[in-house]
Design goal:
This protein is mainly β. The chain has one domain. It contains 1 helix and 7 strands; from the N terminus they run ββββββαβ. The longest helix has 7 residues. The protein is globular. The mean pLDDT is 95.
Length: 93
């Protein structure tokens, strides 16, 4: 399955990937660097726990821990701690 990185929280190292099914997969990135907004990600985006995703845009693999699947936009923002008072910590596509 493929998806697009739609939300990033740089402080906590989490991303929300908008999947082909119009749901969000919430993942903690276990690597030193995060993917960028708009990067195309493929892998098992509908499975909880440890996974290896592939960043098609950068042509590299990265390890994640999937925290949630089938989240909607509101749930994704809440889990990635997207609030008005911490705008320097996150980005939304």
């Amino acid at each position: 399955m493929k998806g697009t990185v739609a939300i990033i929280n740089h402080k906590i190292g989490w991303i929300a990937v908008l999947t082909e099914n119009n749901n969000f997969t919430i993942a903690e990135v276990l690597e030193y660097s995060l993917p960028e907004l708009g990067d195309i990600i493929s892998g098992n985006l509908e499975s909880l726990g440890s996974e290896t995703f592939y960043n098609n845009t950068k042509e590299e693999e990265f390890d994640v821990f999937v925290q949630d699947i089938y989240a909607d936009f509101t749930q994704a923002k809440k889990q990635l701690e997207v609030f008005e008072n911490n705008k320097t910590e996150w980005e939304i596509l």
